[in-house]
Amino acid sequence: MAITKKQFGVMDDERPVSLYHMENSNGAYVEILDFGARIRSLVVPDQNGTMTDVVLGLEDMNAYLHDDAALGAVCGRVANRIAKGHFSLNGKDYTLAINNGPNSLHGGPTGFGLRLFDGKIKDDDLILTYRSADMEEGFPGELTLTVTYHWSEDNELSILYEAVSDADTILNVTNHAYFNLNGHDSGEVLDQLLMIDSTAMTDFDDFQIPTGKISETAGTPFDFTEAKPIGRDIHGVHPQMKGNTYDHSLVLDGSGFREAAVLKSTTSGIRMTCFTEEPGLQLYVYDYVLHNKGKGGIDYQPFGAVCLETQHYPDSINHPEFPSIVLEKGEKFRSTTVYNFSTI
């Protein structure tokens, strides 16, 4: 395994941003930015041995600085939505910035995805660390987050999240990679086959905030227990299909580290299997032209990728019936998600 580093650009304050290239002996590789700990490229062989970049990424640093889609980013301090940017912890109320309708999304306007991490190469691992100050974006406690990326000889990307805080806080981190197994510039993903190990979902209101109800997905557009084309039911009629696409929190079956989802393309023959220990998965397929130029200067068109965001449920801090996202002072948080790539 070879890991190299080069400068990709600079922040607004002129701090350099680095791009790390992780390549195995087969020529498959991953590119990671220390800006937002973002996955910029992930290149694996298709069924004919042609190297294919299966992750959407942006053309240059300027595009990333103005990215509003969290492409490939580690999202936090709390990924997904917090209703009205408000929560209570230990009897104290906290108010966050609103950046998604009436809600706080992905940690706020300057969440982890827009922060510069400290990078370190250790053996075959890339270790990225960010220290989030007490009350940064309104969250209590100074929190240290470490994201360790490992790229294996058999084309498996492992993401290990570790964190500790000096005060009680809340934490829900995920990676927001956009996958297209025919290639990042190949167009829609609607014919790609998706299976998710989930038989239930968190119902949400008109502002995409959970109502607290967990509903079975059998017979609905959200039933992916058997592999089906992503686009088959994406415009289906259902009370929870409030928009033109999927942006829904699915409750993963089982517990512990387990298979969560399988994505396959019959065109490229590439298969991606996702494993996680998180309780949920946010299924998201964007339905608009992305606002910033993609790699090669292309415009990413609607439905051009699918996100499989392993995480806790949205707005968990305001739903005591959901798995907790409270991280107590001195408690060590640890969670692993893996994306394994092979061919059909």
Q: Can you walk through the features of this model?
A:
By secondary structure, the protein is mainly beta. It has one domain (2-343): Distorted Sandwich (Beta-galactosidase, Chain A, domain 5), CATH 2.70.98. Helices cover 1% and strands 42% of the residues. It has one helix and 27 strands. The chain has one helix at 61-65; strands spanning 2-10, 16-23, 29-33, 39-45, 51-53, 74-75, 81-82, 86-89, 92-95, 104-105, 118-122, 125-132, 143-151, 156-165, 169-170, 174-175, 193-196, 198-204, 210-216, 228-229, 247-252, 258-264, 270-276, 280-284, 307-311, 326-327, 333-343. Strands 11-12-13-14-27-23-22-17-20 form a nine-stranded antiparallel β-sheet, with no helix packed on it. The protein has a five-stranded antiparallel β-sheet with strand order 1-2-3-4-5, with no helix packed on it. A hairpin with a 5-residue loop joins strand 18 and strand 19 (210-216). The longest helix is centred in the first third of the chain and has 5 residues, at 61-65. The protein is globular. The two termini are 25 Å apart. The mean pLDDT is 97.
